[in-house]
Amino acid sequence: MCSFLPTMNPGPLIDMPLDQRKRDLQTFTNYYPPILQISSRTLAVPYKEQRHHRSPSESIGNNYSLQACDLKIRNLQKRHGVSLRNAFATSPGTSLLFKTKASPREPLPSISRPLTSKQQQEIMQSLEEQTWSTGTEPTEKDLERYVYYIRNCVHDPMLAPQPPEQTNNIIKLLPPSHRDMERLMEDLLMEVHSDHNFSLRKSIVDYILKDPLERQRLFISNVPRPFPRRVIRRPVPWAAMYDQAWTWQRQHLFTVNPMMVHLQELWLNSFSTLRFVKLDDLFSANLPLLPADFEDLVQRQCQITRDDLANRWLPRCASLFVSYKDLWLPLVPQKDHVAPASAQEFFSCVAALMSLQLRSLVIASLQDLLQFFTLHQDGNDFGDVFEEMRFVQRQVLLVKLNVQEQHIVFQPSLEECWELIHQGFMKIINSAQNLPRVECNLFLDIQGRGLYLRSVRTDELLVTDIINRAKSIFQKNTLGPKQYLNVYTKYSSLLDDTAKQDIVAFLKEKHSLQDFTQKINGFQQMWKEIASLHITVPLSMFCLDALRLNEDLCDRSESLKDRLIVFKVEENRDLNKSICHRYDKIAETVMGTTGNLEELVALYQYLKHTSEVTVHKLKDEICEAADRLSFLLDCATLPQEDVKLNSNVFHWPEQILAMFEMSKGRLASRKVHAEDHLIKRTAEFEQTLLSVGKEVEAFKKKEFVSLEEMKNNVEKLNNLASSLDAAVTEQENINQQETLLEKEQSQFPRLQNLMDIKQPYDQLWTTARNFHNLSEIWMNGPLLHLNAEKISDELATMWNTMYKLIQYFSDLAGPRRVADSFKIKIEKFKQHLPILTIICNPGIKDRHWDKITATVGFKVKLDVGTSLLNMLELGLSKFSDQLEEIGVSAREEYTLEKTMENMKNEWADLRFAFTAYRDTGTSVLSAVNDIQVLLKDHIIKTQTMGGSPFIKAIEADCGEWEDKLLMMRDILESMLKCQACWLNLEPIFSSGDIISKMPEEGRKFAIVDKCWRDIVSEAVKDTRVLVVTGLSNVLSRLQESNVFLEDIQQGLNTYNNV
Fold first, then answer.
1. What letter does residue 537 receive in the DSSP assignment?
2. Is the pLDDT of residue 361 over 80?
3. Nearest by Cα to 545 from 484, 474, 615
4. Separation of alpha carbons 732 and 922, rounded Å
5. Quick check: bond before 653 cis, omega within 30?
6. Theoretical Cys-Cys bridge with 745: which of 347, 512, 562, 735, CB 3.0 to 4.6 Å?
7. In this structure, are residues 841 and 887 in contact, taking their beta carbons and an 8 Å threshold?
8. Do 308 and 272 meet the contact criterion of CB atoms below 8 Å apart?
9. Which superkingdom is the protein from (predicted)?
10. pLDDT digits (tens, 9 = 90+) for 312-323
11. Rounded to 5 degrees, what are φ and ψ at 541?
12. What angle do CA 449, 455, 456 make, to 5 degrees?
């Protein structure tokens, strides 16, 4: 019940039944006990007075002060001359009334010095805290009842009227009234009257609630704290300064000048609704707009408003100054030599007011433009699936989707769209710039001095806040367009040419018609899906125009589908041409003429294979051509030439069968004629073999007579060899024709027999002639051109041949005697081989010729024209054993020299490999394994050569080379050791902190680092191993560096242990 009682209105009770009215009124009265007496003839009498029997005077005293609640008039009348203080003192409740008052006889307190405003505020604040220290804050129920008693329980007749002089004093403070201000003045006076009545009601309620018993009866535990009345009283230390400031503002503050009111009225009545960007024009535009059109719209509106300000507002302001010149013209000095300070201040105030008006226009325009975009503040994040009906509000910007470099792009881009919107805000601000102040229109002589009204700056917090809010809204609206691009993800293969590459790869492979049908249907389905996509996509702030994108993707899909169809059309054309071409070739071949038996047999075999195999394969291909034609008729329109070509393909099988029958009859007659010719050719070949056999038999009786006869025999044998070779070819041709005619091959054993009989005679006479010719060259030719080893091998071969022929011709006296004769000659010549081997040795030197001369006892020297016969005439054969030792020594020494020469050649172009080490500016060795292996092998080989008994001639060179190799090994090992330590220490000593803690080690590492860098810098100029290892003092420098590195490492270990 209590929940609705506070809102009950006792007025409607009169419409209820009497009993119900009594009950409801009683309930309402119990919930809101009365605070004032309604039936009292004295107004505003507290309700609590009904409990007492007081006279009106006593009640009035109670109303005046709570301390007079027990005041009795009879007490005042009993004793004459009793002071009011004694009368009040007779009552028990009045003891506190005068307790704190000073006795009239007590001396007055001394007058203190003036207090500052801060000191007075501190005293007042201290008193307030003491007053309210014991109280508590009212509850919501207390506040509700408190407000109710103020508004409903103190009626207007109980209130004292507002003094007229108070209203008059207020009106006097106002500027002269204007007819446009009368309505405003009436409203303000009504507001003052309302505030006055409310203050009186509140004062009456506050006074009654000071009584604790009344608060308890009215169910109000605590009342709100009154607003502190803090009044700074004079005198104060800054009173003079205040007076001075008041006087200065009276002379220089022009904000209360009536002229300002006229300017404000003009602005409010005529230009306050003006905007740089009008929302009505924006909403009435044909939205969505292209970004460029939106920018033009904003610029046009801004320019119209600026023109309106410049052509209407400023001239009308100037006309006000002309109309009310009496209000400001006295501020302008009449004399030229007097500075117009007051006028300047006045117009500065005017400029400030007009600047504020202009700022309000700019701010309102910025806020309106922001409000225009605020309609889209929820953004356009549509999640996974786009729903067109979700964004029904009109969009602002129309952004096109295009393909650029295999990607879908916004045109213009979202960044450019934001820049355009940002420029719209900047255009509003810039349109209010450089508007001249009103005095420029009044005084022509000050025009052009740069006096402009101040407007909003772009760097103000207000502007940045609006732009940031607009940017936040814009960012929320960029999610949708980016998300919508995911719709085209499944078509990305069309954009990045993946689908095109797949088609290229697909066409390179062999596929069935079903595969092509599936591919074509896939692209057709893709085309339908793309064509069914939204052309315009509403996304809150943005509207995406996907027309060109969809057309582009459809064209790409259609192009790939057409490429498959064109490929299949061309393939069908090529295959049909191939079928027709093969039929043409078959027809040309079977109807052609043959020149020989091979062609005849080949044609017969061709005709047989073609009729049994090829034609059936072609029929299968024609069936495939029929399937291809059916496929192409469903998805393509064939040109006339392809239709004609398909017709030719289907008519060829019948035409080719007639040609086969005609060709078979012609080939049968040609085969009979070829068999007769082969029989005749075989008989002629038998006669040829008999003639050759007689010529071979003639060589059984030939003997060696003369050199000329030997040459003739060799020539005849060569002719017989040619005849036998021709006979072998003839036999092969006869057997080939027999095979072609499917007859048994003829055997000619006589031919092989003749070849076997001829071979020994050929070896005999050819070897004899060769020995005769070569022995002449070996004996009488220059020794410098002879090769002893080759001559020895050839003599051995000739002797072996003659030895075998002697055994073969044991029953033939003539040939056997020829073989014996030449065998003896070969044996005699072989006796000269030791001398020939010694003299023709490539390793023989002058020292060896000296040994030969000492052995034989006379001067022996090999000249350009010296022959073997010359040496034999000198009698060197008698010293063959001694000379053989000299030859062996020369050969071994030559071998050692060549070995050392080869080793040096291997090192000539061998190079070190250097690689740059990080950003240190130097390099390090790499890939030295091959060099180390070769160096080890050559050291072992050189040391082995040094132990040879034949090394004496080159012993000095061999020792020098061995020292060079050993030094190279030491240099390489020292370099690798130094490099390994340097690589470990370089990162450590590159820090200045380590060097400061270990100065000695840092100094040594600096020496090693410089040495290493110097060696490497010299080595990289020429990286050949022989050059690098031959650098000046390189080994000693590396060894010294290694000693320093060991000291550094030991110092680091000690430092780490500590």
1. E
2. yes
3. 484
4. 77
5. no
6. 735
7. yes
8. no
9. Eukaryota
10. 998 999 888 888
11. -70, -35
12. 140
Dist. CA 689–CA 980, nearest whole Å: 87
| Two structure tokens written together for 359 | 């700022």
Structure tokens that stand for 409 in this block: 């792009």
Q: Cα separation of 593 and 471, whole Å?
A: 92
Which burial class, exposed, middle or buried, applies to 284 when counting CB atoms under 10 A from its CB (0-12, 13-18, 19+)?
exposed
| Two tokens, residue 953 | 């001639």
Cis check: omega of the bond before 235, within 30 degrees of 0: yes
**What pTM was estimated for this model as a whole?**
0.46
β-strand pairing of 397-404 with 407-411: antiparallel
**More confident: 60 or 717:** 717
Nearest to 783 by CA among 837, 826, 859: 837
372: how many CB neighbours lie within 10 A of its CB?
Answer: 18
User: Token digits for 41?
Assistant: 């003839």
Q: For residues 738 and 675, is the Cβ–Cβ distance under 8 A?
A: no
CA contacts within 13 A on the Cβ side of 378: 8
Among 382, 573, 338, smallest CA distance to 482 is for 382
C-alpha span between 135 and 53 (Å, rounded): 32
Positive or negative: CA dihedral 139, 145, 149, 152: positive
- Is residue 539 a contact partner of residue 484, using CB atoms and an 8 Å limit? yes
Q: Are 317 and 426 in contact (CB under 8 A)?
A: no
Any residues with CB less than 8 A from the CB of 43 and at least 6 apart, and which? 157, 158
| Six token digits for residue 952 | 């004496």
Q: Which amino acid belongs to residue 845?
A: K
Instruction: Report the 10 Å Cβ neighbour count for 132.
Output: 13
Strands of the sheet with 536-539, listed across from one edge: 407-411, 397-404, 542-545, 536-539
Q: How many CB atoms lie under 10 A from the CB of residue 556?
A: 22
Q: Which tens digit of pLDDT belongs to each residue from 771-786?
A: 777 777 777 777 666 6
pLDDT digits (tens, 9 = 90+) for 951-996: 777 778 888 888 888 888 888 888 888 989 988 888 888 877 777 8
HSE, side-chain direction, 13 A CA sphere, residue 124: 14
Give the closest residue to 669 by CA, choosing from 603, 730, 724: 603
Q: Residues 645-666: what's their mean pLDDT? A: 71
Q: How confident is residue 180, by pLDDT bands cut at 50, 70 and 90?
A: low
- In tens, the pLDDT along 1-21 reads 333 334 344 444 445 565 665
CA dihedral defined by 447, 448, 451, 457, rounded to 10 degrees? 140
- Measure the CA–CA gap between 408 and 404, rounded to whole angstroms: 6
Share of the chain above pLDDT 90, in %: 4
Asked if residue 896 lies in contact with residue 945, where contact means CB atoms within 8 angstroms, the answer is yes
Q: What's the CA angle centered on 428, arms 426 and 431, to 5 degrees?
A: 105
CA 693 to chain centre: 92
* Residue 815 CB contacts under 8 Å (≥ 6 apart), including other chains: 699, 700, 702, 703, 760, 761, 764, 805, 809
CA angle, residues 220, 223, 225, in degrees to nearest 5? 170
Which whole-number Å values give the CA distances from 821 to 364, 384, 780, 800, in the listed order? 138, 112, 21, 14
Q: What is the pLDDT of residue 858?
A: 63
Per-residue model confidence (pLDDT) at position 468: 92
Mean pLDDT value across the chain: 78
Sign, CA torsion 392/395/398/403: negative
Mean pLDDT to the nearest integer, 409-419: 89
Structure tokens at 244: 């001075």
Q: What's the N-to-C CA distance of the chain in angstroms?
A: 90
Q: Are strands 923-926 and 913-916 parallel, antiparallel or unpaired?
A: antiparallel
- CA–CA distance, 206 with 224 (Å, rounded to integer): 9
Please give the distance of CA 111 from its chain centroid, rounded to a whole number: 86
Are 832 and 881 contacting, i.e. CB atoms less than 8 angstroms apart?
no
pLDDT at 84: 40
- Kindly tell me if the per-residue pLDDT of 86 is higher than 50: no
